Amino acid sequence: MIRVGHGYDLHRLELLAPAGQGKPFVLGGIFIEHDRGPVGHSDGDALLHAATDAILGALALPDIGQLFPDTDPQWAGKDSSHFLRAALQLMRQQKFQVSNLDATVICERPKIGPVKEQIRAHLAQLLNCDKGQINVKGKTHERVDAVGEGRAIEVHCVALLENA
Ligand code: MG
User: Fold this and answer.
1) How many angstroms separate the alpha carbon of residue 107 from the centre of ligand 1?
2) Contact of 141 with 108, CB cutoff 8 Å
3) What is the pTM of this model?
């Protein structure tokens, strides 16, 4: 049996604290040097949030916001790999494994290209997959709307699960 899931996330980007509310820019668990960072309750890692929701979605489970509410102080500043690991544990309980995962990151800056391979390798490690099963694509928003003006980052993610 196979199951497909889709995940989407958006975080506002602001100047790093204390100038703004931006947290250090972390994407797919990898730190990227940038003058802005995501505003969020956890570490604001939009890629890990979208990947978590893709896996939860494939399993028809409650989404990341339901499992880890942003009103709960225990998730404040949390490393988002925690949420992905929790989703993977639920996946294994249902005897599934990740067949492949494909993500599209949309932001004007920073450029994703230079860290893409590092992100893929890190995701492969988290998901216990080969790097060849994980894909990350970077796009801009052509300078229009909040994403194109550098005020937000958006991630779409699709995951295919198969029986373990
Ligand atoms: Mg999020």
Assistant:
1) 15
2) yes
3) 0.97
